[in-house]
Structures are given as C-alpha cells and as structure tokens.
Amino acid sequence: MRDVITGNEAVAWGAARARAQVVPAYPITPQTTIIEGIADLIKKGELKAEYIPVESEHSAMAACIGAAYAGARAFTATSSQGLLLMHELLHWAALARVPIVMAEVNRAVAPGWTIWTDQNDSLAQRDTGWIQLYCQDAQEVFDTTVQAFRIAEEVDLPVMIVLDAFVLSHTAEPVDVPDAADVDRFLPPRKPKFVLDVDNPCAFGGLNGPDVYQEFRFNQQASMTAALEAARRSDNDWAKMFGRRYGLIEEYRTEGADTILVASATPASTAQDVVDKLRAKGKKVGLVRVRLFRPFPAVELRKALAGAKRVAVLDRNISPGHHGIFCEELKSALYGMPKAPEVRGFIGGLGGRDLTPDSIEEVFDRAMGPKKEEEIAWIGHKA
Amino acid sequence: MPGTTVTEIRMHGRGGQGAVIASRLLATAAFLEDKGVQTFPTFGVERRGAPVAAFVRIGTSRIRDRSGAMKPHHVVVLDPSLLDAVDVFAGLRADGTVLVNAPQPPSIRRDGAAVAWIDASAIAVRRGLGTRATPIINTAILGAFARVTGVVKLESVLEAIRRGVSTKLEENLAAARDAYESAAVVPPGKATA
After folding, report:
1. Are residues A320 and A221 in the same domain?
2. What is the distance, to the nearest Å, from the Cα of residue B10 to the centroid of all Cα atoms in its chain?
3. Does residue A40 belong to the interface with chain B, where contact is any CB pair within 8 Å?
4. Are A357 and B67 a contacting pair at CB < 8 A?
5. CA of A237, closest CA in chain B: separation in Å?
6. Cβ of A167 under 8 Å from any chain B Cβ?
7. Which of A30, A58, A222, A309 is the most exposed place for a label (fewest CB within 10 A)?
8. Which A-chain residues 81-120 have CB contacts (< 8 A) with chain B?
9. What angle (nearest 5°) sits at the alpha carbon of residue A335, between those of residues A330 and A295?
C-alpha cells in the first residue's frame, strides 16, 4: 500500500506490520491518533493484538513488561507528561531486558501547559537504558517502527522511536507500507530466551545483592554496545528488502564541508534545503543528522565530522544549567580527537516554535561568523 | 534534491467544516500524479466553528521543508464569512489565486492576485451533501480548485475522493465535477475594495 498518511498513522501501520501482540495504551495529545489508528487496524483485521485500555501511562508500561515477560511482542505509545509518568518503569523494562517498542511523540514539558514539540521529554529518559531513534519523516517512522523490533529482540533491550509533535505526528505525506508477508520475512516471530510460564516456574526480578547487581549493568552496557551493530544490520537488511536506508547517522553534502550542522528529527529535513541553498552560493556547508541517540554513534560522528573546521549543533532541547543535550553528547564524543572541529551550540524551536529555513540559515551564518562570547546561542528568540 | 519546485496552498475554514479533509484529498490528488506532497493542519486544538487553516505543499519531488512558514501560491476560503475574520491574502505570492466559496463574486481585491469563486454550498446542497445550514463542501471546492489553478487534474481529484471518501461517494464525485464546470475567475475591475 502506498498512500498519503500522517506520522502517527505510519506508527500504527508499523506496529501492525510488526505484528505487535499486546498494545496497552493511554491516550495523550499528540500521541492519541497512534492508538486510535492501532485500534482501527485491529477492528479492520489488519492486526491481531490484545488492546488494553489502561488507567495511566505507568500502567501501560507495566502491562507491556508483563506481556513481554510472557513472550509477547509488546508495543505502546506516549508523549511528554505521559512518558514522565512512565519513568520508573522505563528503567524496569531496560534492566528486565524486555524488548518492548514504544513510539514517543516529542512534546514539550509543562508548565506552561503545552502540546507542541521539543525533545526534553524523551531526552530526560537518556539514562533509562532505552535505545532511542529519532525520525524525520513519516516513511522513516514506519520503517523504523518495524526495524526497532528487530533491534530490540536481537539485543534484549527496549527501543523508543521518537517523532516530533504535529510537524511529524500530524503531517501527512506519501508512505509505502509493504505487504505483511514481505515484512514477515524481515521480522520473524519473537523467540524469547526466558518466558514467564506457569508450567515452568522461574523467578523474575528477584533481590540482587551487591555481589551480582553490577554485572547486570555490565551486561546491559555490553548489549547497548552490541545495539550499534544490531541497528546497522537491521537498517542494511531493510535496505536490501525495501530499498530504503537511513544509517545510524545520515550525512548530507558533507564532502569538503568546512562547516557542518548537526541536527536531529524534522529540523534536519528542513536543513537539507538550507544546505542546498548555501552550497549554490558557494558556501562549504554540510549536514549530519543524528538518527540513533542511544547508543550514541560516536565513531560514526567522528568520521563524518573529521575535516570540518567547525560544527554547529542545533538542539530543540536544553539541559537547564548546562547546554543543549545533543551538543554536550557530541562534545564528549569528539573529546581527544586530533584536529577536532570547534563545536558551537544553538538552541531553538522549544515548545514548538517554528524552525524555518531562515532560522536554520541563521545558525549557519552565526556558526561561520566570528566567535561570540556567549556559551549558548539562542535561535528565534524574543529578547 | 536541488531544484525542487514547490507550490504552497493554504485553506481557510471553520472547525468541523472539512478544511483538513479537503487538504488531505488535495495532497492525495497530487500524490496520484507522482508529485511530492505534504499536508498539515494548524498545529494545536481545533474548535468547532472557529477559524482554522490547513496547508498543502506540492513539489516536483519529495518535500523536505517541514517548517510551518508558508507563502502560499493559492488560498482557498471555504466560508465567505471568513473574509471579514481573517486576512486571507496574508503571505500570498504576487501572482497568487484566492478561491472563495461564495454565493456571488466576492468583492475582495489585492494587487496581482486573482480572485475566483464557486458556490460550492449550493452545489453540495443540490447533491445532497450536508444540509442547507451546514453543507459539506470539501469535495466541491476541490473540483473548483482544479479548474481555476490547474495545480492538479480533475481526474486526480476524483480518484482521491474515491480513495478517501467512504460515504455518498457518487454525490461527492458529482459535486466535484459540477464545481469544476462552474468555477469562475472574477473579472478584474468588477469588484471593489
């Protein structure tokens, strides 16, 4: 099927083609049309799944964990305050090593009350042990939803697919949804290593003393490192079958670039037009989009940015009291690199403020200009 | 891809009137012509009866600009009462077109912009779509849009309706055809203000 559908509808189709078996969910704007879409696909017979309307996001994740313990492919979706309410169980899912997949629609955090996009909700879950993938269009959202199950089940870690509120969730564009039989060849049924089974009783999540706990973390870290390769393989296999490849990071016109913009999610898509415009004027600029945020693709980023004189990082988020989060992650990845480019951080687009081609061009202009004193440069800011 | 040419369209309606559905049908019509398309509503909450807008980008290849900033080539106004409530010319390009659903030629004018009109409400009522008080005009208006702008073909609009409209399909197709036949550009100089 090829049709004009929204990012949220693409998530629902992704869950259906991945044959999610249990979908516990609690609605929140702008995620609601995802779970409405899933309910609709179940009704139409496109998906055979147990849909559980729960009383909160905390319960949604708890039900996902239980279902995954029992061997099922579990999926849910949330946003902002809902994700924050889930926080305790995000840690639980990742340390319990259950391969849940969740779509998270980036919505800024209140107060003031807001429903528009920024990344502080998902980035606040950085250290929960979830793999995170940030998407830039509805096709990538569909493809990544299916890919995510492959990655999750290969390394036994949960995966969060992240998409921007409205700019992606509610924007419709052409999406190719392959036939179920084709996707089945990419993603066979889940084969859990351990299953909660009354006929074969065993304990899950028991008391772990200081003599064993640290090794759980060690193993989790090892699996996170393995997730880099798993994500690469999942993407390569997808490209072989369906002709679309994204990479862990995506480079755009970085060859010979002096100044490279590092961005994520939909602003990186808009930035491609800006790079073309500046290249046409003879400016040596390029773009790197970070698609995989956890595990952080440090090796790929070092390679992509080697040779650039300066890097501008556009963050639609902030770690209050420090910097933009992608900017800090990138600086840490480049630390110690010979001839590392100068990194300048820009923050903008918070709470859904539009990141226009002009505002992204301003980032390039300021990055290429003389170095300013301020540590953080704000974009589209009202003085 | 360098060299992508994009046509931007803004639709003004009232909440519940079908501007979002009309924009999606228009995007689908262009998609059926192998164009790159993107469509989105005003981001946020829609209240019944309040002025709303929806947006469509149609390109020669995939649309990458995901900003809300738009300088429309064409503006569609689903409800003539909006002409007093919002500036339908805002951001309109110099050679743009404004298509208004109205019972008679609207008296709006701006230098360089073409003004076109269609009595989509009357067509909808005649075809049994909605009621006289709340006619459902989103398919009729697209027939008129195809006629006055040439951005999409009528056949594509009809196919988009076949794909996207599940009730009163024949009536909706007929409404789009009727509007295509009778849409008219207001002759320059006829209107004032």
Report:
1. no
2. 7
3. no
4. yes
5. 24
6. yes
7. A222
8. 115-116
9. 45
For residue A272, report the phi and psi dihedrals to the nearest 5 degrees: -60, -40
Place of tokens 């590092």: A262
A337: tokens are 């690199």
Counting beta carbons within 10 angstroms of the beta carbon of residue A366, is it exposed (0 to 12), middle (13 to 18) or buried (19 or more)? middle
End residue of a domain, out of A202, A219, A242: A242
ipTM for this prediction: 0.94
Q: What is the pLDDT of residues B61-92, one digit of tens each?
A: 999 999 997 899 999 999 999 999 999 999 99
Residue B187 has what pLDDT?
A: 75
Smallest Cα–Cα separation from A76: which of A28, A124, A139? A28
Q: Which residue has the tokens 């609601």?
A: A32
B37 to chain A: which residues are within 8 Å by CB?
4, 173-174
Tell me: the pLDDT tens digits for B163-184? Answer: 999 999 999 999 999 999 999 9
- Token pair, residue B184, equals 């008219």
Residues A107 and A200 in one domain: yes
Residue A328's contacts (CB-CB under 8 Å, 6 or more residues apart) are A319, A322, A345
Range 221-250 of A in CB contact (< 8 A) with B = none
Clarify whether residues A135 and A197 are in a common domain.
yes
Phi-psi map region of A173: left, alpha, beta (phi>0 left; psi -120 to 50 alpha): beta
Q: What is the pTM assigned to this prediction?
A: 0.96
Give domain B6-185's CATH architecture: 3-Layer(aba) Sandwich (3.40)
Q: What is the pLDDT of residues B23-38, one digit of tens each?
A: 999 999 999 999 999 9
Measure the CA dihedral A357/A360/A361/A362, to 10°. 130
Q: Which of A116, A171, A272 has its CB closest to that of B64?
A: A272
Chain A residues whose CB is inside 8 A of the B45 CB are 115
Give the count of Cβ contacts less than 8 A between chain A and B: 72
- On whether both A55 and A115 belong to a single domain, the answer is yes
